[in-house]
Protein backbone atom coordinates (compact mmCIF):
# COMPACT_ATOMS: atom_id res chain seq x y z
CA UNK A 1 0.00 0.00 0.00
CA UNK A 2 1.13 3.51 -0.73
CA UNK A 3 0.18 6.55 1.29
CA UNK A 4 -0.82 9.40 -1.02
CA UNK A 5 -1.48 13.02 -0.13
CA UNK A 6 -3.98 14.84 -2.34
CA UNK A 7 -4.10 18.58 -2.99
CA UNK A 8 -6.20 19.17 0.12
CA UNK A 9 -3.57 17.53 2.32
CA UNK A 10 -5.81 14.52 3.00
CA UNK A 11 -4.04 11.17 3.06
CA UNK A 12 -5.50 8.03 1.64
CA UNK A 13 -4.25 4.55 0.92
CA UNK A 14 -3.75 3.27 -2.58
CA UNK A 15 -2.85 -0.28 -3.55
CA UNK A 16 0.55 -0.44 -5.18
CA UNK A 17 -0.43 -3.41 -7.30
CA UNK A 18 -4.12 -3.58 -8.22
CA UNK A 19 -5.73 -6.78 -7.04
CA UNK A 20 -7.89 -9.02 -9.20
CA UNK A 21 -10.75 -7.95 -6.92
CA UNK A 22 -10.98 -4.63 -8.77
CA UNK A 23 -11.36 -6.57 -11.99
CA UNK A 24 -14.07 -8.73 -10.39
CA UNK A 25 -16.03 -5.62 -9.45
CA UNK A 26 -15.76 -4.43 -13.05
CA UNK A 27 -17.03 -7.83 -14.20
CA UNK A 28 -20.11 -7.47 -11.96
CA UNK A 29 -20.73 -4.04 -13.46
CA UNK A 30 -20.40 -5.44 -17.00
CA UNK A 31 -23.14 -7.96 -16.25
CA UNK A 32 -25.46 -5.33 -14.78
CA UNK A 33 -24.87 -2.95 -17.73
CA UNK A 34 -25.59 -5.73 -20.23
CA UNK A 35 -28.79 -6.68 -18.45
CA UNK A 36 -30.01 -3.08 -18.19
CA UNK A 37 -30.85 -2.88 -21.91
CA UNK A 38 -29.21 0.56 -22.20
CA UNK A 39 -27.56 -0.15 -25.56
CA UNK A 40 -24.92 2.31 -26.75
CA UNK A 41 -24.91 4.41 -23.60
CA UNK A 42 -24.10 1.30 -21.53
CA UNK A 43 -21.35 0.38 -23.99
CA UNK A 44 -19.86 3.88 -23.71
CA UNK A 45 -20.03 3.72 -19.91
CA UNK A 46 -18.30 0.34 -19.90
CA UNK A 47 -15.59 1.51 -22.31
CA UNK A 48 -14.90 4.59 -20.19
CA UNK A 49 -14.50 2.36 -17.15
CA UNK A 50 -12.24 -0.06 -19.05
CA UNK A 51 -10.04 2.78 -20.30
CA UNK A 52 -9.82 4.23 -16.79
CA UNK A 53 -8.93 0.81 -15.36
CA UNK A 54 -6.32 0.28 -18.11
CA UNK A 55 -4.71 3.63 -17.27
CA UNK A 56 -4.65 2.69 -13.60
CA UNK A 57 -3.06 -0.67 -14.40
CA UNK A 58 -0.39 1.06 -16.52
CA UNK A 59 0.43 3.44 -13.68
CA UNK A 60 0.63 0.60 -11.15
CA UNK A 61 2.49 -2.08 -13.09
CA UNK A 62 3.95 -5.03 -11.20
CA UNK A 63 7.75 -5.37 -11.31
CA UNK A 64 7.39 -8.23 -13.81
CA UNK A 65 5.15 -6.16 -16.08
CA UNK A 66 7.67 -3.32 -15.90
CA UNK A 67 10.49 -5.71 -16.86
CA UNK A 68 8.50 -7.07 -19.81
CA UNK A 69 7.50 -3.58 -20.92
CA UNK A 70 11.15 -2.55 -20.89
CA UNK A 71 11.83 -5.34 -23.41
CA UNK A 72 8.90 -4.45 -25.66
CA UNK A 73 8.46 -0.67 -25.56
CA UNK A 74 9.53 1.74 -28.29
CA UNK A 75 9.70 -1.03 -30.92
CA UNK A 76 12.74 -2.55 -29.14
CA UNK A 77 11.56 -6.08 -29.81
CA UNK A 78 12.51 -6.53 -33.47
CA UNK A 79 10.68 -3.37 -34.51
CA UNK A 80 7.28 -4.68 -33.43
CA UNK A 81 4.81 -2.30 -31.82
CA UNK A 82 3.44 -3.52 -28.51
CA UNK A 83 0.85 -1.81 -26.35
CA UNK A 84 0.28 -2.49 -22.68
CA UNK A 85 -2.90 -2.82 -20.65
CA UNK A 86 -4.96 -2.73 -23.82
CA UNK A 87 -8.76 -3.14 -23.76
CA UNK A 88 -10.20 -5.82 -26.04
CA UNK A 89 -13.91 -6.45 -25.73
CA UNK A 90 -14.67 -6.83 -22.04
CA UNK A 91 -11.05 -7.54 -21.12
CA UNK A 92 -7.80 -5.70 -20.62
CA UNK A 93 -4.77 -7.65 -21.83
CA UNK A 94 -1.30 -7.07 -20.37
CA UNK A 95 0.50 -6.65 -23.73
CA UNK A 96 -0.55 -6.89 -27.36
CA UNK A 97 1.14 -6.79 -30.72
CA UNK A 98 -1.67 -6.13 -33.18
CA UNK A 99 0.58 -6.73 -36.20
CA UNK A 100 1.40 -10.30 -35.11
CA UNK A 101 -1.96 -10.78 -33.30
CA UNK A 102 -0.15 -11.89 -30.15
CA UNK A 103 -1.27 -11.19 -26.60
CA UNK A 104 1.13 -11.59 -23.69
CA UNK A 105 -0.26 -12.23 -20.23
CA UNK A 106 1.86 -12.08 -17.08
CA UNK A 107 0.44 -14.33 -14.36
CA UNK A 108 1.09 -14.21 -10.63
CA UNK A 109 0.53 -17.06 -8.19
CA UNK A 110 -3.19 -16.34 -7.78
CA UNK A 111 -3.72 -17.51 -11.39
CA UNK A 112 -2.93 -21.06 -10.24
CA UNK A 113 -6.09 -21.12 -8.10
CA UNK A 114 -8.91 -23.10 -9.72
CA UNK A 115 -11.40 -20.22 -10.10
CA UNK A 116 -8.81 -17.92 -11.64
CA UNK A 117 -7.47 -20.72 -13.86
CA UNK A 118 -10.97 -21.37 -15.24
CA UNK A 119 -11.53 -17.63 -15.79
CA UNK A 120 -8.19 -17.40 -17.64
CA UNK A 121 -9.12 -20.36 -19.86
CA UNK A 122 -12.48 -18.83 -20.80
CA UNK A 123 -10.78 -15.52 -21.49
CA UNK A 124 -8.07 -17.19 -23.60
CA UNK A 125 -10.68 -19.04 -25.67
CA UNK A 126 -12.55 -15.80 -26.33
CA UNK A 127 -9.38 -13.95 -27.36
CA UNK A 128 -8.30 -16.85 -29.58
CA UNK A 129 -11.75 -16.82 -31.22
CA UNK A 130 -10.95 -13.22 -32.22
CA UNK A 131 -7.79 -14.45 -33.99
CA UNK A 132 -5.21 -13.72 -31.27
CA UNK A 133 -2.58 -16.07 -29.92
CA UNK A 134 -2.30 -15.80 -26.12
CA UNK A 135 1.15 -16.38 -24.61
CA UNK A 136 1.34 -16.66 -20.82
CA UNK A 137 4.36 -16.21 -18.60
CA UNK A 138 4.57 -16.69 -14.84
CA UNK A 139 6.05 -13.92 -12.72
CA UNK A 140 8.74 -16.36 -11.61
CA UNK A 141 9.78 -16.97 -15.24
CA UNK A 142 10.33 -13.26 -15.78
CA UNK A 143 12.22 -12.95 -12.49
CA UNK A 144 14.54 -15.91 -12.98
CA UNK A 145 14.70 -16.66 -16.73
CA UNK A 146 14.21 -13.50 -18.76
CA UNK A 147 16.43 -14.88 -21.55
CA UNK A 148 14.13 -17.90 -21.86
CA UNK A 149 11.09 -15.60 -21.92
CA UNK A 150 12.75 -13.54 -24.67
CA UNK A 151 13.54 -16.64 -26.76
CA UNK A 152 10.03 -18.07 -26.35
CA UNK A 153 8.53 -14.74 -27.38
CA UNK A 154 10.78 -14.70 -30.45
CA UNK A 155 9.51 -18.18 -31.39
CA UNK A 156 5.87 -17.17 -30.82
CA UNK A 157 6.38 -14.11 -33.07
CA UNK A 158 8.05 -16.20 -35.78
CA UNK A 159 11.45 -14.54 -35.37
CA UNK A 160 14.50 -16.73 -35.82
CA UNK A 161 17.99 -16.12 -34.38
CA UNK A 162 19.14 -13.25 -32.20
Tell me the structural class.
alpha+beta
Q: Calculate Rg over CA atoms.
A: 17 Å
Strand content: 15-25%
Strand order of the largest sheet: 3-4-5-6
Please give the CATH architecture.
Answer: 3-Layer(aba) Sandwich
| Largest sheet data | 4 strands, mixed
Q: Helicity, in percent?
A: 40-55%
What's the rounded overall pLDDT mean? 79
CATH topology: Endonuclease, Chain A
Ranges where pLDDT stays below 50 over 5 or more residues in a row are 1-19
Q: How many strands appear in the DSSP assignment? A: 6
Q: How many helices does DSSP assign?
A: 6
Number of domains: 1
CATH class category label: Alpha Beta
Overall, the morphology is globular
Q: Helix and strand string, N-terminal first? A: EEHHHEEEHEHH
By CATH, the superfamily comes out as VSR Endonuclease
Nutshell version of this structure?
The chain has a single domain (34-156), classed as VSR Endonuclease (Endonuclease, Chain A, 3-Layer(aba) Sandwich). 49% of the residues lie in helices and 20% in strands.
Q: What are the SSEs and their pairings?
A:
Elements: E1 2-5, E2 11-14, H1 20-35, H2 40-59, H3 63-72, E3 83-88, E4 91-97, E5 102-107, H4 114-129, E6 133-138, H5 139-144, H6 146-156
Parallel strand pairs: 5-6
Antiparallel strand pairs: 1-2, 3-4, 4-5
